Amino acid sequence: MKSKRIFAYLIDMIILIFILFIIGIFFKNQNVESLHLEAIELHQTFLSKEVGFATYINHYSSIMHDLSKQTFLYTFIGLLIMSVYFVWIPYKWKGQTLGKRAMHLKIHKKGELTIQSLLYRAILINGLGYVTVSLLLLWILPSFSYFFTISSICILQVILVIVSFFMILYNKDGKSLEDLLTDTEVIHVEEVK
Predict the structure, then answer these.
(1) Is the Cβ–Cβ distance between 81 and 19 less than 8 Å?
(2) Rounded to two decimals, what is the model's pTM?
(3) 99 near 15, Cβ under 8 Å?
(4) Is residue 78 part of a domain?
(5) What is the pLDDT of residues 7-24, one digit of tens each?
């Protein structure tokens, strides 16, 4: 069941990335493209040693801050889609996402599975917390502080996912970090209705 759980997570992430990719097609604009080109040119000037690290990182953080502002609506819509996919759908489908349904798994909690438990799980493992914080800090912090804060939170999010994967693989009961913190577990379902 441990490998099924990891495959279910990967299926969910592939589905979510595909949905966000399709939506992203409608959010392309000239400002975003020019910021991407500016970042590429900056990388090239840094690699050719035309600019130093301090200049590079200051300019790069400014570009990323501007890019985040240009893609704010897309990111906000992504946050809503993530919330629906990882909180509302499993709540309505009795603990299942599409990936869990495909792998015949479900999130289970003694008593009743609540939206609050699903929300906490999504914040911890599905990036909901990272995206929410990045949207909020975008309008509060200057570019340099924003870039380093969000980069640090992104690294923390990746670490949480890796820790959860290893916990699933090496805990006898297969519980992950989000299971332990929300008092839930992922169980096998013989027949998915």
Answers:
(1) yes
(2) 0.85
(3) yes
(4) yes
(5) 999 999 999 999 999 998
